[in-house]
Write a structure and sequence with these properties.
The chain is an alpha+beta fold. Helices cover about 25% and strands about 30% of the residues. A hairpin with a 4-residue loop joins β6 and β7.
Amino acid sequence: MLHTAFVALGSNLEEPLLQVRSAFDELNSIPETTLIKKSGIYRSVPMGPQDQPDFINAVAQISTELSPFELLKELQKIENNHKRVRKIHWGPRTLDLDLILYDQEIINTEILTVPHPGLALRSFVLKPMMDINPKLATPLNKTIEELFINIDCSDLKIIDNDL
Ligand code: ROI
């Protein structure tokens, strides 16, 4: 069975733009998984502690035969390959890959929450999702564009729309 999933990419250390560009390719290299669509790439003001560099953020649509938990493991492998610094809570990171949506599934476990709790709140997730598919339904009983209505995007700047 093929499943549709969305992954949010974020980086604010060690050439963030290169981290995110190479992460798109690495998503396409996950077993039984294909990169379907890339959003634009954005520069965003940090959410949380402000004494850290701006982030580069984007979203990828993938299709996969993996289960949500198998996919999570593969995302963590990619993160670990990029990670040269220890993660501090809400601090800077070389690469974050968050599983945002997996079909219309709702998952609430210790290790995985889908839809990602940030989906409805974060400009740097919803704006790239709008690039990919504003009409997409979510398990939150709203489409992406309905969630997006309330979002302030003044903290975001598109830097790469040539995808
Ligand atoms: N802030 C922005 N703008 N983008 C992120 O990807 C991001 N990721 C995080 C925290 C530190 C919460 N802030 C962020 O993990």
